[in-house]
């Protein structure tokens, strides 16, 4: 019934009379000529709004990029009241998530139907996937969004540039680069479930240097991780403190030194799901404590009158996790993981329409537990990518990569993409074909009960889409078909009683996105994703991936030209879960969130938001609790 309501609301909204547009007598033209041979150099210079960083690990124009990319800006995050990375990405195109309880609980993300370990997460080029995790999957629960300039979500296999784990796509978090005079900002809010947040940031810069540094603390009593419908009443709290920064110097006209770091300390109370039990139950004493430190230093140099750029960087990421009350002596309680990465890239513009990129990387992963001595895996990779303008309105990219792992052997990948702007029409066609891989996590091939003979998981994916502008260029519509075939998936082989490369799966579907400037004060953004994911060995639907996922966001500025009001309506279709080995269908649900902001003067802004306004009773995972209606309010200062 609620899915019918969502569809009706979208249709009614689209019938809103059109008020403002461009001159109807204007003639659509192809985009202006883009010189790909001289891209802006980031972080030497700030990122332009029309520039993307993730598709080629360098600043490139969106008009020359055939990949499917979604950009979430700092302004959007602030308007919608996002606190964590999960808040920022959970309602985006092609994404579905599942969380083991309330805020701060373990969270998995499925991008285009791929596994949770098939999305690579980066902060300014730093790989954030935990090498001590069971599958190296990233936990989206406790990364806060303070000091973030933008988030770029790149969908489809991306291993040519980013190596292992980039099978379903890449989520790249870009730290704020300070500019102009020093500016300080502060925000604080509080509300339901004993929730409060405080954050401060200071940033600035000029032609010679730039800086941004931020700190925040977030705490909530949350809800019981084990669902209340089974009689669980203990609230499982969560708190996280974060300090992050970016500092850079343009040492000369052609040399830049850039340093970024992020420190996170988090604690979340958790409940038990004992072996053979039908559902999770309260544990009054158990918590997961995690500490993470990530940093990267990069030196870049321009040569040959700016046509050649060298980039050399070193990254180090460290994870420490502690389970204070493990349910069994057979499970470890302390985990440590560390990733050290050296990477080099050279971007050479053969001419104004031809950009060649070569890169090399050397990475060391280490992991240990209180029950497992330290193990490691070394990997080396080299890649070559060519970006070329074939015609004024036609751009293409082709790349290949070779990787060698000390434990898992070789992995070779390729990727092609293209974008073609239709002549005399505000539309373009985009397409991509590529392969990806995920090397086995250290826990899968070197921990106790692992299989040292595991090979990398692989995928082959392609997409074809069309983007067009309608309603006198005030409505942007994109329709994309995608497919990704997964092979050599690491699954449990009961006949051999060991992990083995015997899994095969396929995910295919359609993504629809819409951005509409209804009038001077009102904007509408909507997305819909249909995903059909199947285990090709058994023919069964993959767990926790809804076939239907859609979001509608409407924003309106009141006539006082100050107050901004918005709502987000998010629909998640039915999907399968497998608690205790029994397949269960989870019901679809619809969540309505509201947000309001109003500047009190030129420095202070008041804001309010309400989540799950209709107090929907729903489950993301079988047996785990979710919040009902919650309300928050606060103030922000900028000076």
Structure, explained:
- There is one protein chain.
- Mean pLDDT is 91; it is low at 1-32.
- The protein has 639 residues and is mainly beta.
- The chain has helices at 2-14, 74-80, 85-89, 159-162, 442-445; strands at residues 51-52, 60-61, 68-73, 95-99, 107-111, 119-123, 126-127, 148-155, 169-175, 183-191, 195-205, 209-220, 238-252, 255-269, 287-303, 308-323, 334-351, 354-369, 375-391, 394-405, 409-421, 427-438, 457-470, 475-493, 498-517, 522-535, 548-557, 564-572, 575-577, 584-586, 589-599, 604-611, 630-638.
- The longest helix has 13 residues, at 2-14.
- 5% of the residues lie in helices and 54% in strands.
- It has one domain (2-638): Maltoporin, Chain A.
Jot down its keywords.
globular; 5 helices; mainly beta; Maltoporin, Chain A; disordered N terminus; 22-stranded antiparallel beta barrel; 5-stranded mixed beta sheet; 33 strands; 639 residues
């Amino acid at each position: 019934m609620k899915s019918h309501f969502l569809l009706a609301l979208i249709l009614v909204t689209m019938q809103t009379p059109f008020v403002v547009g461009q001159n109807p007598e204007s003639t659509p033209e192809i985009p202006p000529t883009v010189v790909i041979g001289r891209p802006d150099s980031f972080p030497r210079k700030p990122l332009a709004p029309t520039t993307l960083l993730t598709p080629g690990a360098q600043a490139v124009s969106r008009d020359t990029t055939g990949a499917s990319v979604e950009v979430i800006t700092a302004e959007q995050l602030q308007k919608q009241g996002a606190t964590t990375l999960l808040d920022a990405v959970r309602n985006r195109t092609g994404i579905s998530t599942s969380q083991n309880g309330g805020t701060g609980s373990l969270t998995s993300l499925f991008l285009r139907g791929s596994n949770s370990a098939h999305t690579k997460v980066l902060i300014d080029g730093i790989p954030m996937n935990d090498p001590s995790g069971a599958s190296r999957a990233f936990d989206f629960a406790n990364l806060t969004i303070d000091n973030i300039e933008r988030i770029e979500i790149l969908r489809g296999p991306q291993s040519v540039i980013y190596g292992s784990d980039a099978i379903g796509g890449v989520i790249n978090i870009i730290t704020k680069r300070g500019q102009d005079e020093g500016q300080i900002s502060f925000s604080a809010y509080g509300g339901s479930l004993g929730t409060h947040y405080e954050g401060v940031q200071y940033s600035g810069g000029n032609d010679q240097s730039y800086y941004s540094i931020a700190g925040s603390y977030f705490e909530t009593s949350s809800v019981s991780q084990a669902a209340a419908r089974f009689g669980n009443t203990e609230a499982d709290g969560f708190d996280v403190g974060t300090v992050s920064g970016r500092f850079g110097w343009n040492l000369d006209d052609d040399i830049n030194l850039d340093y970024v770091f992020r420190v996170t300390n988090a604690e979340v109370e958790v409940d038990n799901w004992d072996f053979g039990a039908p559902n999770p139950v309260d544990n009054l004493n158990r918590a997961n404590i995690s500490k993470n430190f990530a940093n990267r230093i990069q030196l870049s140099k321009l040569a040959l009158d700016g046509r050649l750029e060298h980039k050399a960087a070193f990254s180090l990421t460290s994870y420490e996790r502690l389970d204070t009350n493990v349910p069994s002596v057979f499970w470890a309680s302390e985990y440590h993981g560390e990733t050290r990465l050296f990477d080099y890239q050279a971007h050479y513009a053969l001419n104004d329409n031809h950009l060649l990129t070569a890169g090399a990387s050397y990475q060391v992963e280490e992991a240990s537990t209180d029950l497992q001595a330290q193990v490691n895996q070394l990997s080396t990779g080299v890649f070559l990518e060519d970006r070329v303008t074939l015609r004024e309105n036609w751009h293409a990219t082709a790349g290949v990569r070779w990787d060698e792992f000390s434990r898992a052997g070789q992995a070779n990948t390729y990727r092609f993409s293209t974008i073609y702007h239709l002549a005399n029409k505000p539309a373009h066609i985009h397409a991509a074909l590529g392969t990806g891989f995920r090397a086995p996590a250290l826990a899968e091939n070197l921990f106790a009960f692992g299989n040292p003979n595991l090979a990398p998981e692989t995928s082959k994916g392609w997409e074809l889409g069309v983007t067009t502008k309608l309603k006198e260029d005030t409505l942007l519509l994109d329709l994309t078909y995608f497919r990704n075939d997964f092979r050599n998936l690491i699954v449990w082989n009961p006949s051999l009683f060991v992990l083995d490369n015997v899994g095969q799966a396929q995910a295919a579907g359609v993504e629809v996105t819409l951005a509409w400037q209804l009038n001077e004060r009102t904007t509408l953004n909507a997305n819909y994703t249909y995903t059909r994911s199947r285990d090709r060995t058994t023919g069964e639907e993959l767990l926790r991936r809804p076939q239907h996922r859609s979001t509608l966001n409407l924003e309106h500025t009141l006539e006082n030209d100050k107050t901004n009001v918005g709502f987000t309506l998010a629909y998640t279709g039915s999907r399968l879960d497998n608690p205790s080995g029994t397949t269960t269908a989870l019901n679809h649900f619809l969540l309505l969130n509201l947000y309001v902001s109003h500047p009190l003067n030129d420095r202070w802004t008041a804001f309010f938001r309400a989540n799950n306004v209709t107090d929907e009773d729903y489950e993301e995972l079988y047996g785990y609790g979710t919040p009902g209606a919650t309300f928050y309010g606060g103030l922000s200062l900028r000076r």
